[in-house]
Amino acid sequence: MARKKEKRFVLNQVLDNVLEEKKPLYDIIKGKWNELVFKKPNPLVLELGCGKGEYTVGLARIFPDFNFIGIDIKGDRIAVGAKTATDEGLTNVAFLRTKIHNLEDFFGANEVSEIWITFPDPQPLEGGIKRRLTNPRFLAMYRNVLIEGGTLHLKTDSEPFFDYSVESLKQMGVKNFISTKDLYNSEYNDRHHGIKTRFEEIFTAKGFKINYLATAFATQN
After folding, report:
1. Known active-site residue 182
2. How far apart are CA 178 and CA 165, in angstroms?
3. Active site residue: 16, 27, 105, 121, which one?
4. Percent helix, strand and coil across the chain, each rounded to 5?
5. For residue 199, what is the enclosing H or E element?
6. Residue 33 CA: distances (Å) to CA of 24, 25, 112, 180, 192
7. Which residue of 35, 124, 152, 181 is most buried, as measured by CB atoms within 10 A?
8. pLDDT in tens, 96-125
9. What is the reported pTM?
10. Which CATH class is domain 2-216?
């Protein structure tokens, strides 16, 4: 396992679609993704905590006129998605290795069209709130980098985390969001485009229902 991880770290260093510390563009990419990475002025879509990039790559296959960026601190994971995209010739895919709380170091205001959060670690209520990807601090960052009316999507199997996320949005004054606690049997099922992460496959096989919400962030919600 250690050797496999080591090989993936080396792979990240040579793949052009991976940005990480000490590689070109890493320190200057803010506000310039379409100019320097994709070379096409398409809308930017982020997958936060992307793991192996199932959503990043899956969406890129379906929507060639959008540019997709998977973000995760785990280099051995993003290497899998980056290699898949490279092998398939997907030029609208990139990966950024960093922590989510550094998001505004890499994306300028109004630079992003959509954000996907897919099966994040729900984090415990006691001591873990500040690391929840839908706490007010993170939500404020998302609103800053999203364009006016940009969409935030959340998928999770954790109902307590989902309830917390809904309340966090309400506390921010966000009102125009849709939500369901049983995505596959809801009117919103087509919104996730049939893409499932590895964790989602595991959870649904065990009978867990999938919670989903989406909101279009605006100056006044």
Report:
1. no
2. 12
3. 121
4. 40, 20, 40
5. helix 198-205
6. 13, 9, 10, 33, 25
7. 152
8. 999 999 999 999 999 999 999 999 988 876
9. 0.93
10. alpha beta
